[in-house]
Write a structure and sequence with these properties.
This protein has about 230 residues and is of the alpha/beta class. The protein has eleven helices and eight strands. About 45% of the residues lie in helices and about 10% in strands. The strands form two sheets. It has a six-stranded parallel β-sheet. A two-stranded antiparallel ribbon has the order 2-3.
Length: about 230
């Protein structure tokens, strides 16, 4: 049983729009979280372009930093906020501070239930190398016997090798595996492509008409989908 990390297990607290808006307000730019939320497509579009260009943006701290600075600069430009005076750097520092992340509340009880059912649990994530430290800080690292993180492995979703590597480390075949993630292109499609059973977790209601795999909106629905 494999999981994505961001927006599946963990999230910026209280949310990406709220946190970014809070930073901007501290910097003297009164921006509402709703204004940031309306521009969330900037992030998704940047992810899409990175995948199409095979731009492995999480595989080194330098690449990750350059990627996210570009994303934050695009946000500021769209909001009409000057990017000088170090505001972009302070946004980056905020979103790389482990203290600004939380588990979704529905995650711990479901992980406990899955472990009690005898499932091997793992993580497959496009994330910086500090994901393991974050999971330790949040008290769930020991739940995962397999942790495959792009920032450590040098390969990123949707590359099928990252899924196959996780299955190999877990000692199972892809056909014996389930993968839960929040993005059709990065999670559902490539997981299905290697033979895993994909499940889309759509916490924000971004894909209401999705039918290519089971769709859940909270982790609490997962045991039922698995027949537990």
């Amino acid at each position: 049983m494999f999981f994505d990390a961001g927006e599946t297990l963990v999230h910026p607290h209280p949310s990406f729009p709220d946190l970014l808006a809070a930073v901007l307000r501290r910097e003297g730019h009164p921006v509402a979280a709703a204004a940031v939320r309306e521009r969330a497509g900037i992030v998704f579009e940047r992810f899409r372009r990175a995948a199409e260009a095979n731009e492995r943006w999480t595989t080194s701290p330098e690449r990750s930093r350059a990627f996210w600075l570009g994303v934050y600069e695009a946000f500021l430009e769209d909001l009409g906020i000057p990017g000088g005076d170090g505001v972009v750097e302070r946004i980056y520092e905020t979103f790389t501070d482990l203290a600004n992340y939380r588990l979704f509340e529905d995650v711990p009880p479901v992980l406990e239930r899955l472990a009690a059912a005898g499932l091997v649990l793992g993580v497959i994530s496009n994330f910086e190398e500090w994901l393991e430290r974050l999971l330790e800080e949040l008290g769930v690292r020991e739940r995962f016997s397999v942790l495959v993180v792009s920032g450590l492995e040098g390969i990123e979703k949707p590359d099928p090798r990252i899924f196959l590597l996780a299955a190999e480390r877990a000692g199972v075949s892809p056909q014996e595996s389930v993968y839960v993630g929040d993005d059709p292109g990065f999670d559902v499609g490539p997981a299905a492509g290697v033979g895993m059973r994909p499940i889309l977790i759509d916490r924000r209601g971004r894909f209401p008409g999705f039918t290519q795999a089971p769709r859940i909106t909270t982790m609490a629905e997962l045991p039922g989908v698995l027949g537990l």
